[in-house]
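pasting for ref. prot 1 ->
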Amino acid sequence: MTASVRDDLLAAGLIVFDRVGFEAATVAAIRTRARASNGSFFHAFGSKKELAGALFLEVLRHYHAAVLAALDPEPDAEQGIDRLIRAHLDWVVTSRREARYLFEISRSEWGEEVRDAQRAQNARLADGIERWRAPLVANGELLPMTPVMFVSQLIGPAQIFCRAFLSGRDRVDPRVEADTLIACAGRALRPPERINRT
C-alpha cells in the first residue's frame, strides 16, 4: 500500500466525520469517498477508530506547525502575542474542517490509543513556545507564570470565539476580534509598564 492511499483515506475520513460525526461514519463511506478497497482500508487501519486517532494526530501536527511558524523569525513579546493569536485564528478559519475535527469532533474514548503520541506532539509545541517565552520572562517582558497558564491566557479567550464559529452558533469570522483579543492578552501576559499604549 502506498502512502497516498493512506493519505486519501485520512482525507476521506475527515470529510465523512465532518459531515456525519464519528458515530454515524462508516468504513464503507470512508472507503467510497477515498475510492479505496476494503483490503486497502484494513491494510492501512485496523478500524474506523484507528483511522480517527491517526487523523487526530495528523491534524494536531498541522495546527502545531501553524502556531510555531508564527515564532519564526523570533518576535519580541508584543509581536509574539500578536502573531500567536492571529496564527490560531487564521488556522481555525482557513482550516475549518480540520479545526472542527480537532476542537469539536475528536473524542477522548477513541483517543486513548494515541494519547502518548498526542502528549509528545503537545510537548514539542510547548517546548517551541517556551524557547521563545523563557528569555522574555527572564528580562521582564512577559509576566512569570506556568506555561499552561500562559497558553490559557493567550489562546483561551480566542478559543471561545472559535468554538462558536466552528459549531455554527456564530457565523462571524473570529478574526474580526483579533485586535481586542491581542490587547486583552497583552494586558494579561505583560507587565503594565511594558505594554505599548499607543
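and prot 2 ->
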Amino acid sequence: MRTREAGEVFGPRMALFADVLSVGLATAAACLPLVTAPAALSTACAVLRGAGQDQPVTAGRYFALLRRRLRAGDLLAGGVALAGLLLLAADLALAGEGLPGAPMFAVAAAVIGACAAVVGLRACGRPESLTDWRAALRAAARDAVADVGGSGLVLLAVATAALCAWMLLPLAFLAPGPLALALTAVDVRRSAAVLVQ
C-alpha cells in the first residue's frame, strides 16, 4: 500500500474500503435475480483480488467482468444454490412443526446447510470459479476440510453480514462487498499457506 500523499484527505486503505462498498452495491444489484448470486459474488471476489495486482476496483470493471462471464454454468450454479437454500428452509420449517426427532433433525440440517454454505462460498472466492465451477467446488471442499480456521472465518463473515443486515436493512445492500473481501482474503491466506509448505 502506498502512503498518503501531501494534501490527500484519506489514505489508500480508506480508498480500498470505498471501493469494497461500491463493489458491494454492484454485487447486491447483480444478485437480485437470485440465480445470478454465485456468479455475482465470484465476480466481486475476482475484482477485489485484482487490487493486489494494481487493477482498478470499480463498479464499472465489476459489471464489465460480470457481463463477459454470465453463462449457462453460472446460472446452473445459481439454480443449485437457490434449490439448496429452499430445501434447507423447508427442512427447518418441517422440523419446527413438531415431527418426531425434530430437534436432532434440525441440528443435522443446520450443520449440513452450514457445511454446504462454507464450500459454496469458498468456491466463489476461488479464481477457478470464473471459468469452471466444478473445479472450484472440488478445491473449495478440500480447502474447507484442510483449513478449518478459514472455514470458521467464512462462517463468521456470513454471520457478521447477516447481523448487520438484520440490525439495519440498508446495510444488506453493502454487505456483499465486505463478504467478498473476506472470501478473497481467506482464499489468498490459504494459497499463501500452501506456498509456504
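The longest helix spans residues 72-95.
Residues 49 and 152 are 21 Å apart (CA to CA).
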